[in-house]
Design brief:
single chain, about 300 residues, alpha/beta, Arc Repressor Mutant, subunit A, D-Maltodextrin-Binding Protein, domain 2, 5-stranded mixed sheet, 3-stranded antiparallel sheet, 11 helices, about 40% helix, globular, DNA-binding, transcription, LysR_subst-bd, transcription regulation
Length: about 300
């Protein structure tokens, strides 16, 4: 079977137009037609039919089943090309959210430097949701990810390194600042500043506000942690942040929450199960695994 035929067929299912697909792949329309015929002969079933009454293409049930499988085959093939291309390179394609880069990555940066591993790093710093997609697509090989629940992904191996609670963060002028702990519902009338939707914090905010029975009034979202703390310090809003994000020098108050929710900021080392690290990449992974002890001693 020609995998190119599967690519043509998948595009035809999406576009429903032979001419558009031919233009997309820069081939003639008969090339697409012949490719579909080869697939129909291969599988012994019609895949595409023309509804002449409505002048449109209809994908048969057999075609729909093949399309679902073809998507996985083409994705795995693209991933194989990427991995083979990277096989002889020592580059470490690594991803982490900025908040992990600020709070925890420095704990092992010295060891990475002493072993000469920082030289090999190509680091992508974006939110965990985006990093998960980049991992699955083969754009990066290793990541430190944040999640509100322990990760379980079919094609990824995950090692939990740390699990930290979230705190309500308020200014020192806030009426609740002198409390030892609060219920999240006590913030129902406050304005909120939070991380953008690409990070895990909005998921935690939704879980806590749903439990407390109110919709938070989010007045500002940003990927910049220091800006959030600055806005809270100025008493322009409150926030929900992982406990380690708050330092004495931030001049804000981090309040423990009494709500019995399982959400935590879970930091996990995540690697594609099919990834075969070379010695340099494996040494980097070994150092990252040591974050579990480093964070515990912090």
């Amino acid at each position: 079977m020609n995998t190119r035929d599967l690519a043509y067929f998948s595009a035809l299912v999406t576009q429903k137009n032979y001419t558009v697909v031919a233009s997309q792949f820069k081939v003639s329309q008969p090339t697409i037609t012949v490719a579909i015929q080869r697939l129909e002969n291969e599988f012994g079933a019609p895949l595409v039919q023309r509804d002449r009454a409505h002048n449109k293409l209809v994908i048969t049930r057999a075609g729909q089943l093949l399309y679902q499988r073809a998507q996985r085959i083409l994705k795995d093939l693209d991933l194989a090309y990427l991995e083979v291309e990277q096989a002889e390179q020592s580059t470490i394609r690594f991803g982490m959210p900025p908040i992990i880069g600020t709070m925890w990555f420095p704990l092992i940066a010295g060891e990475l430097f002493s072993k000469g591993l920082l030289h090999y790093l190509e680091t992508l710093e974006v939110g965990s949701d985006q990093l998960l997609k980049e991992l699955e697509a083969g754009k990066i090989d290793v990541a430190l990810l944040g999640s509100v629940r322990p990760m379980h992904e079919a094609n990824l191996g995950s090692t939990l390194l740390a699990a930290h609670p979230f705190r309500a963060v308020v200014s020192k002028q806030h009426p609740l600042a002198d409390q030892s702990a609060i219920a999240f519902e006590q913030l129902a009338n406050d304005n909120f500043v939070t991380m953008t939707g690409k990070f895990v914090h909005p998921q935690a905010l939704k879980a806590y506000s749903d439990y407390a029975g109110f919709t938070p009034n989010v007045v500002y979202s940003t990927p910049v942690l220091s800006l959030i703390k600055g806005l809270v310090r100025a008493n322009l809003g409150v926030s929900l942040l992982v406990d380690d994000a708050i330092q004495p020098s931030d001049d804000v108050v981090a309040l423990p929450l009494t709500d019995p929710l399982p959400e935590r900021f879970n930091m996990s080392l995540v690697i594609r199960k099919a990834f075969m690290p070379n010695p340099v990449q494996q040494e980097f992974i070994n150092v990252l695994t040591g974050l579990k002890d480093a964070v515990g001693k912090k």
